[in-house]
């Protein structure tokens, strides 16, 4: 299985306008496991999120609708601490 970074991701482009909004705090890359508001099973997604949006994705992961593969903090459009998800708890 190829790494998520080598695949075409749906959702936000790495230079998406959402990345540069004042209230954007997180970036996540994830796989959709079950049909949900984020997509269909098998979709690989990238989203730039507000803190509230990020908390909603954590709930989706708890419901096993998605699996977060990588995540990062975003400050003024800069992607910081880009890490693979090796643990259940997120920053």
Describe this structure in words.
This is DUF5720 domain-containing protein. It holds the Pfam family DUF5720. It comes from Clostridium porci. The structure is a single chain. By secondary structure, the chain is mainly beta. It has one domain (4-83). 13% of the residues lie in helices and 35% in strands. It has one helix at 51-62; strands spanning 10-11, 26-32, 44-49, 66-75, 78-84. The chain has a five-stranded mixed β-sheet, covered by helices on one side.
Question: Can you give me a brief rundown of this structure?
Answer:
Helix content is 13%, strand content 35%. It is mainly β. The protein has one domain (4-83).
Topology:
Layout: E1 10-11, E2 26-32, E3 44-49, H1 51-62, E4 66-75, E5 78-84
Parallel strand pairs: 1-3
Antiparallel strand pairs: 2-3, 2-4, 4-5
Task: Tell me the number of helical segments per DSSP (H or I, 4 or more residues long).
Answer: 1
What number of structural domains do the residues give? 1
Choose one word for the global shape: globular
How many E-type strands?
A: 5
- The helix content is 10-25%
Tell me the Rg in angstroms.
12 Å
Approximate strand percentage: 35-45%
Terminal CA distance reads 27 Å
Low-confidence stretches: none
Neighbour order of strands in the largest sheet: 1-3-2-4-5
Overall structural class, as computed from helix and strand content, comes to mainly beta
Attribute tags:
single chain, 91 residues, mainly beta, five-stranded mixed beta sheet, 5 strands, 35% strand, globular
């Amino acid at each position: 299985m190829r790494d998520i970074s080598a695949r075409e991701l749906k959702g936000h482009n790495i230079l998406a306008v959402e990345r540069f909004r004042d209230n954007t705090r997180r970036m996540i890359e994830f796989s959709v496991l079950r049909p949900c508001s984020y997509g269909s099973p098998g979709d690989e997604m990238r989203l730039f999120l507000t803190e509230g949006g990020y908390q909603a994705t954590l709930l989706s992961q708890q419901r096993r609708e998605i699996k977060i593969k990588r995540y990062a903090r975003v400050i003024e459009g800069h992607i910081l601490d880009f890490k693979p998800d090796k643990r259940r708890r997120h920053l």
